[in-house]
Amino acid sequence: MSALSDQLVTFAILTYLVAMICHAVEYALGNARTRAMAATPARELVGAGVGGSGGGPVVTEAGSDAGVKPPARPGGRGRLAGRIAVVATAVAALLHLAGLASRGVAADRMPWGNMYEFVLTVSFIGVASWLAVLWKRPSLRRLGLFLTLVMVLLLATAELVLYVPVVPLVPALNSYWFVIHVSTVVFASGLFLLGVVPAVTYLMRAGYERGKRSFPYTLAKRMPSAESLERLTFALHAFAFPVFTFAVIAGAIWAEASWGRPWGWDPKETWSFISWVIYAGYLHARATPSVKRNVATWIAVLGFLTMLMNLFGVNIFFEGLHSYGGLD
C-alpha cells in the first residue's frame, strides 16, 4: 500500500500540472481575445451623399474593405480549456485523496505523523475547499491557475524533500488528542493555504485596477475583480480562524495531559501563538473601516508566512518537544 500511495501522489502531481497548463491556456487565450477585439476595425457612420440611393446613414468599417469579417474570437476555446482545467483539478484531488488514504492504511493510523504526510493532507484540504468554492462561484475559475501552481510546488517539495517511508506512530502521539488536535490544525491550515491565494492575487489585481502595468500586477489582468477576491480572502480566514483557535486550545490541553503543563513556549507553540495573533490582527483590521483593505490583506499574507515558518523552519531547524513532526 505504501508503494501504491507513492504512485497515486505522483499521478496527482502530474494531473495538477495538466490542470495548471489548461488554466494557463485559458489565461493566454483570454489575452488573445482582448487583443483581437482591440484590433477589430471600429465601425463608423457615414452620411449618405446627395443623390444617393438611400436617405439613411451607411455603416462602414474604418480601414477595412467591404465584406471582410472581423477576426474570430478565441473565447470559446479559452472556456473549454478552463473547464478541462477544473475537471483535471477534480481528478487530481481524487488521486490525492486516494494517495492519502492508502498511506493511512499502510501505516495503520491517520496520515499526519510527519511533515510529508502533514503537507499532503493540508494541500488536499486546500484543493478540496477550492473545488467547493468553485462549485458555488464559477466566476472565480481563473484563480485556479495560481492554486494549481501552489499544489504542484507543495506536492513536488513533499515528494522530493520531505518524503519519509511509512513508519508507526511515535509513542508521544499515541493519544486520541492526536486526532482532535492535528485534524483541526490540518483543516485550518488548508483553509489558510487556500486563503493566501486570493489574498496575493487581490494585491496584484488591486494594483492593476489602480493603473499599475508593471510586473507582477499584469499577472492579475485576467483575474476576477479585486473586490470579489478580497471578499473571498476574508470569508476563508473568518472560517479558518475559529478552527485554528480551537486547535491551539486543544494542543494546550493535550500538553497538560502529556507533559504536565499547558504551555511552555516550545518553538512550535511560540510560532503557533505568533500566527494566531497575526490572524486575529488581520480580522480586526478587516473589520476596522479606517484600515485600508490592502493593508489588512498584507497582514493575512504575513500570517501565512508565519505558518510556513512554523511548518518548515521550526520542524527542520529547531529542537523541541514537537521534533517528531520533522523529517525523521
TrEMBL record:
Membrane topology designation: Multi-pass membrane protein
Primary location: membrane
Coiled coil segments of this chain: none
Membrane-spanning parts: 12-29, 80-98, 118-136, 143-164, 176-204, 232-255, 270-288, 295-318
Superkingdom of this protein's organism: Bacteria
Molecular-function GO terms, alphabetical: heme binding
Any one of the GO CC terms: plasma membrane
Compartmental location: Membrane
Annotated Cytochrome c assembly protein domain residues: 112-322
InterPro entries for the chain: Cyt_c_assembly, Cyt_c_biogenesis_CcsA, Cyt_c_biogenesis_CcsA/CcmC
Name of the protein in its database record: Cytochrome c-type biogenesis protein CcsB
Organism taxonomic ancestry: Bacteria, Bacillati, Actinomycetota, Actinomycetes, Micromonosporales
